[in-house]
C-alpha cells in the first residue's frame, strides 16, 4: 500500500513535470559536459516550461556537425560555441538574427557587430600557459612570464602547443601573436618557439593535460582547462604571459529554420541576463556583461586587462593564409626531410 | 578414423534416381524450377547490393562528390586535388601512411599467423582462455591502449627506458597502438581459415615422411594462403584509414588520416576532407585488387571428404607454439593491466593512491549509466541486424549460382567500408540521411541510424569471415543436395548453417564489441537521448578526467569480455555437437 502511494505520488509528480515541460529545445553546445546540468537547471528555475535537450561535443566536431546538417538543421539553438564557428555558420546563412532583451548591456566586443546580431556573447575563453611545477623543477626551468621567454634555449624540447590547423585554441594563439607583434615579428617569434616545441597536438586542451600528467613541463593551452585540472590536484602553475593573451568569445545563436522560435528566443534572452552572466563567471573570469565578473580562483584578478584587442574580422579573413603559412613553416610534412 | 561422412552418403544415395528413365519428365520440371531458382537467388543478391548501396555507396557519394566541388557547390573538376597536392609535403604524409601501415601489417600478420598456428596445430592446454586473451584488444575502446601506452612508455612511463631514448609520440606509438587494436581482426580471419584443416593432407605428409618443417610449408601455409592475404589486406586498410591512434599518440607525425581530421574538424573544409578521403581510397583499392587476384585461385580446403585435423601429441611442437604466443599475450596483458591500474589511480603520476571513486559513473558527466545502456542497446541491435545481413548475403554470394559480375560488384560493395575512415562515414551519413528529400530522414538522430552506421562501418571484416567460412565448405554439398532434390534452402539450414555456426558466432561477437567501442563515425550521429558510452570515454578524457575515462573504458571492456565468454560457451557447445555430427558414429 505504501509502495502504491509512493508510486502514485511519483506518477503525479512526473505528470506535473511533463505538463510544464511543453517545449523541448535541441541545443548544440561545446560547453564542458560537467557544466551542462547546471546551465539547464538555472535556466529552468526561470523557465520550467522549456526543456533543454543537449547535444555536446568538442568545438570542431559540433561545428562540422552543424555545417553538415545545413540542409535540414536539427538544432534549435546553439548555446556555448566559439565565435569563429558562429561566424562560419552566419556566413552560410544558418543563423537567425535576433536582438535579445538587454542586448545594450553587453560589451560591444561580445556581440555580432550587425545591428540585429546573429550571435550574442556569454564569456571569454583565454589563452594560458600551463607549467608543471614538479617537472619544471626537475629540469631546472625558470618560471616563464612572457611569450618571448618561451623562445629561450633553456626550454628546448619542453614546450607543447596545439597545431592551429587542427585546433581553434592553436589558431587563437597564432592569430594573437601576429596581432600583438605584427606579421614579421610574429613569425620570427614562432620560428624561435618552434625550436623549443617538442610536439604539436591536435587538441587544444591536450598540451595542458600533458603538463598535468608530467608528459611535458610546459603546455600552451587555455585557462579554463588549466584551472579545472589544478582543482583536480594537478601540480600546475598557470602563467599568463605579460604581452597579452589571445581569446575567443563563447556565444549563443538561434539556428535558422527552427519551428520553436519563441522558446529559442526565450533561451537567448535568458542567456544574457545578469543571472546567466553570474553563472558563467563561476568558471570564466571574463563575461560579456561589464561589471559583473568577480575574480575566479586560479585566474588572474586583472584578466580583462590581459587580453588583447582581438580583431576577429581580421583573423577570420586571414585564417586560410595564416594556416597555410604555418603549415609551410612548421608542419611535420614540410619538416620531415 | 571416422568412416562416415555426410557427403559420401549423399553421393551414394543420389546416383540411382537420376539415371532412372522414368524420372525424365520430372527432371525437366526440375530444370525449370532450377532456372527460376537461379533468378530468385540473383534477384536476392541484387537486393543485397541495393541495401549496401543505400548504407555505404549513396552516403559516401554525397560526401566524396564534394571533392570536385568548391565551397558553394559548383563543379570545379580536379581543382581541389591540384590545390591539395600543391599545398606541399603531401608526399611525406602519403609515404608516412604507407610505411607505417606496411610495417604494422607485417608485424600483425606475422604475430597473428604464429598465434593461429599455435592455436590450431598444437595441443596446447587452455586454448579457450588464450583465445580470450588474444581478442582482448578488440574488446577495448581505442582510447584505452592510448592511455596505457603513455603510462607505460611516456615521459613518466614505467617502461620508458625500453625505448632507448626514442619517443612514444610518433611512428613508434602509432605502430604499437595500431598493432594492438588490429591484431584480433587478423587473428579472427586466420583462425577461420585454419580451424577447419583437412587431416588427410597431414596424414599424407606423415606417410611421405615429410619433416614437420616441410609439412608446415607445403600443407599449413598454402592452406592458410587465402586467410593470410585477406588478413594483410584488412590490417593494412584499417591502419591506413585510422586517425584515432595517430591523433592521440602520433604527435605531429603526419599521416593521411590525420589530414582528414585537420581539414574537417580543424578547419571545416569538407571538400578538402573529401579530397584526402579519395586519395586514401587509392591504396585501399590496390590492396583490394591484389586480394581479388589471389582469391581467384582459392578453392575449398575443407571438402565433403575432408577429415577434421587433430594434431598429434608432440611436446617439442607445443613448446614452440607457446613461445610464439608468449610475446603477444604479454604485450596485450601489459596494456590492459596498465589501463585497469590507471582506472584506480587518483591522479597519475603524482598521487598514486588507489580508490574506487572513478567508477561512480552516476556522479560523473558525459552520459554516465544512461550512455552505457544506450551503448548496450545499440550493440545488441547491430549484432542481430548485422549478423543476419552479413551471413545471408555471404551465403547468396558463395553458395548459390550467381553471375560473376554480380558477385564482383557485391564483393566490392561489402569491402568498401573498410577503406573509409569512420569520420568520413559519419559525416556522409549526415549528408545523406539528414537530407530533407530523403524519405527516411526520420531515422536521423535515433538509435537506429547509429545501428545502421555501425553495421556498415564493420561490414567488411564480418563479410570476409563469413565468406572464408563458407568457402571452406565443398561446393559438393549443394550439388549433392540438388541431386537429392533437397533445395538450397534446405541445405542452408541443415548443412551449411550448422557447419558455419562457429563463424556466425564470431561475426555476432565482432559486431557487438565493435559497436560497444566505436567512436569515429557515431560521434556525428548520436542525438540528445542516444549518447554512447564510448563517446563518454572520449569526453571524459578530453576534460582531463583520465582515470574515470579509463574506468568507463574498463567497464566497456568487461561487458565485451562477458559477451565473449557467453559466445565462447556457445561455441564450445556448437563445436562439440557439430563435431560429433560431422564425424558421425563409428
UniProtKB/TrEMBL annotation, chain A:
SUPFAM superfamilies, alphabetized: Periplasmic binding protein-like II
Superkingdom field: Bacteria
Position of the signal peptide: 1-21
Keywords, alphabetical: Signal
GO cellular component term, pick one: outer membrane-bounded periplasmic space
Organism the protein comes from: Marinobacter nauticus (Marinobacter hydrocarbonoclasticus)
Keyword Cell cycle belongs to the record: no
UniProt name for this protein: Putative ABC-type Fe3+ transport system, periplasmic component
Gene Ontology molecular function: any one: thiamine binding
GO terms under biological process: thiamine transport
Stored Gene3D superfamilies: Periplasmic binding protein-like II
InterPro entries: ABC_2-AEP-bd (IPR017663), Ferric-bd (IPR026045)
Amino acid at each position: 500500500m505504501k509502495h502504491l502511494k509512493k508510486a502514485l505520488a511519483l506518477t503525479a509528480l512526473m505528470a506535473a513535470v511533463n505538463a510544464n515541460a511543453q517545449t523541448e529545445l535541441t541545443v548544440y553546445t561545446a560547453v564542458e559536459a560537467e557544466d551542462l546540468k547546471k546551465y539547464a537547471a538555472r535556466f529552468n528555475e526561470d523557465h520550467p516550461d522549456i526543456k533543454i535537450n543537449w547535444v555536446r561535443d568538442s568545438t570542431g566536431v559540433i561545428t562540422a556537425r552543424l555545417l553538415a546538417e545545413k540542409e535540414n538543421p536539427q538544432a534549435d539553438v546553439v548555446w556555448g560555441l566559439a565565435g569563429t564557428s558562429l561566424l562560419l555558420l552566419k556566413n552560410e546563412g544558418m543563423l537567425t538574427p535576433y536582438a535579445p532583451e538587454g542586448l545594450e548591456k553587453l560589451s560591444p566586443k561580445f556581440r555580432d557587430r550587425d545591428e540585429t546580431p546573429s550571435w550574442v556573447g556569454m564569456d571569454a575563453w583565454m589563452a594560458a600557459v600551463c607549467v608543471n611545477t614538479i617537472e619544471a623543477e626537475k629540469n631546472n626551468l625558470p618560471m616563464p612570464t612572457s611569450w618571448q621567454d618561451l623562445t629561450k634555449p633553456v626550454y628546448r624540447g619542453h614546450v607543447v602547443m596545439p597545431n592551429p590547423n587542427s585546433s581553434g585554441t592553436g589558431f587563437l594563439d597564432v592569430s594573437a601573436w601576429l596581432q600583438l607583434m605584427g606579421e614579421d615579428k610574429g613569425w620570427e617569434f614562432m620560428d624561435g618557439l618552434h625550436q623549443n616545441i617538442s610536439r604539436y597536438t591536435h587538441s587544444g586542451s591536450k598540451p595542458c593535460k600533458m603538463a598535468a600528467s608530467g608528459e611535458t613541463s610546459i603546455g600552451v593551452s587555455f585557462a579554463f582547462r588549466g584551472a579545472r585540472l589544478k582543482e583536480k590536484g594537478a601540480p600546475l602553475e598557470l602563467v599568463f604571459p605579460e604581452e597579452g593573451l589571445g581569446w575567443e568569445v563563447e556565444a549563443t545563436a538561434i539556428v535558422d529554420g527552427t519551428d520553436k522560435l519563441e522558446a529559442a528566443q526565450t533561451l537567448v534572452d535568458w542567456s544574457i541576463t545578469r543571472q546567466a552572466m553570474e553563472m558563467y563567471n563561476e568558471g570564466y573570469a571574463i563575461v560579456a556583461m561589464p561589471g559583473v565578473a568577480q575574480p575566479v580562483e586560479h585566474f588572474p584578478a586583472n584578466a580583462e586587462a590581459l587580453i588583447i584587442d582581438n580583431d576577429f574580422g581580421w583573423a577570420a579573413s586571414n585564417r586560410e593564409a595564416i594556416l597555410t603559412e604555418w603549415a609551410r613553416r612548421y608542419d611535420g610534412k614540410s619538416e620531415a626531410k | 578414423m571416422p568412416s562416415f561422412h555426410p557427403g559420401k552418403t549423399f553421393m551414394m544415395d543420389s546416383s540411382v534416381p537420376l539415371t532412372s528413365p522414368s524420372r525424365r519428365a520430372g527432371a525437366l520440371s526440375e530444370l525449370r524450377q532450377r532456372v527460376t531458382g537461379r533468378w530468385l537467388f540473383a534477384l536476392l543478391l541484387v537486393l543485397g547490393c541495393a541495401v549496401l548501396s543505400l548504407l555505404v555507396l549513396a552516403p559516401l557519394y554525397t560526401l566524396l562528390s564534394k571533392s570536385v566541388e568548391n565551397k558553394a557547390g559548383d563543379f570545379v573538376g580536379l581543382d581541389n586535388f591540384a590545390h591539395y597536392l600543391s599545398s606541399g609535403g603531401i608526399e611525406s604524409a602519403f609515404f608516412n601512411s604507407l610505411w607505417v601501415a606496411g610495417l604494422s601489417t607485417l608485424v600483425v600478420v606475422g604475430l597473428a599467423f604464429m598465434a593461429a598456428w599455435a592455436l590450431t596445430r598444437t595441443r596446447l592446454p587452455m586454448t579457450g582462455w588464450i583465445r580470450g586473451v588474444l581478442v582482448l584488444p578488440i574488446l577495448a575502446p581505442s582510447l584505452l591502449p592510448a592511455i596505457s601506452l603513455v603510462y607505460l612508455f611516456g615521459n613518466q612511463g614505467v617502461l620508458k627506458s625500453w625505448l632507448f631514448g626514442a619517443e612514444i609520440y610518433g611512428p613508434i606509438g602509432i605502430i604499437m597502438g595500431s598493432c594492438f587494436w588490429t591484431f584480433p581482426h587478423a587473428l579472427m580471419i586466420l583462425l577461420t581459415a585454419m580451424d577447419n584443416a583437412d587431416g588427410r593432407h597431414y596424414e599424407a605428409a606423415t606417410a611421405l615422411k615429410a619433416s614437420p618443417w616441410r609439412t608446415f610449408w607445403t600443407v599449413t601455409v598454402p592452406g592458410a594462403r587465402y586467410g593470410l592475404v585477406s588478413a594483410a589486406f584488412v590490417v593494412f586498410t584499417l591502419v591506413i584509414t585510422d586517425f584515432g591512434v595517430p591523433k592521440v599518440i602520433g604527435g605531429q607525425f603526419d599521416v593521411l588520416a590525420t589530414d582528414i581530421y585537420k581539414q574537417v574538424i580543424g578547419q571545416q573544409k569538407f571538400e578538402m576532407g573529401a579530397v584526402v578521403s579519395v586519395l586514401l581510397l587509392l591504396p585501399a583499392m590496390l590492396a583490394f585488387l591484389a586480394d581479388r587476384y589471389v582469391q581467384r585461385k582459392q578453392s575449398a580446403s575443407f571438402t565433403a571428404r575432408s577429415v577434421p585435423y587433430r594434431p598429434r601429441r608432440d611436446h617439442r611442437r607445443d613448446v614452440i607454439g607457446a613461445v610464439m604466443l608468449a610475446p603477444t599475450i604479454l604485450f596485450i596483458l601489459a596494456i590492459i593491466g596498465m589501463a585497469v591500474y590507471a582506472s584506480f589511480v587518483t591522479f597519475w603520476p603524482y598521487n598514486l593512491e588507489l580508490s574506487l571513486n572513478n567508477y561512480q559513473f552516476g556522479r560523473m558527466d558525459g552520459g554516465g549509466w544512461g550512455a552505457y545502456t544506450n551503448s548496450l542497446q545499440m550493440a545488441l541491435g547491430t549484432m542481430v541486424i548485422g549478423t543476419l545481413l552479413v551471413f545471408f548475403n555471404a551465403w547468396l554470394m558463395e553458395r548459390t549460382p550467381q553471375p560473376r559480375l554480380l558477385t564482383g560488384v557485391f564483393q566490392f560493395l561489402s569491402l568498401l567500408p573498410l577503406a573509409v575512415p569512420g569520420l568520413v562515414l559519419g559525416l556522409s551519413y549526415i549528408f545523406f540521411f539528414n537530407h530533407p528529400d530523403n524519405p527516411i530522414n526520420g531515422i536521423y538522430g535515433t538509435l537506429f541510424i547509429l545501428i545502421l552506421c555501425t553495421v556498415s562501418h564493420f561490414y567488411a571484416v564480418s563479410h570476409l569471415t563469413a565468406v572464408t567460412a563458407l568457402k571452406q565448405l565443398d561446393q559438393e554439398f549443394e550439388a549433392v543436395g540438388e541431386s537429392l532434390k533437397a533445395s538450397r534452402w534446405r541445405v542452408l539450414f541443415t548443412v551449411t548453417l550448422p557447419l558455419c555456426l562457429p563463424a556466425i558466432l564470431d561475426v555476432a561477437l565482432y559486431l557487438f564489441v565493435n559497436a560497444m567501442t566505436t567512436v569515429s563515425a557515431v560521434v556525428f550521429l548520436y542525438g540528445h537521448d542516444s549518447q554512447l558510452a564510448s563517446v563518454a570515454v572520449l569526453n571524459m578524457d578530453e576534460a582531463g578526467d583520465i582515470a574515470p575515462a579509463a574506468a568507463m573504458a574498463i567497464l566497456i571492456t568487461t561487458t565485451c569480455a562477458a559477451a565473449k565468454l557467453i559466445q565462447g560457451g556457445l561455441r564450445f557447445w556448437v563445436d562439440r555437437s557439430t563435431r560429433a555430427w560431422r564425424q558421425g558414429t563409428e
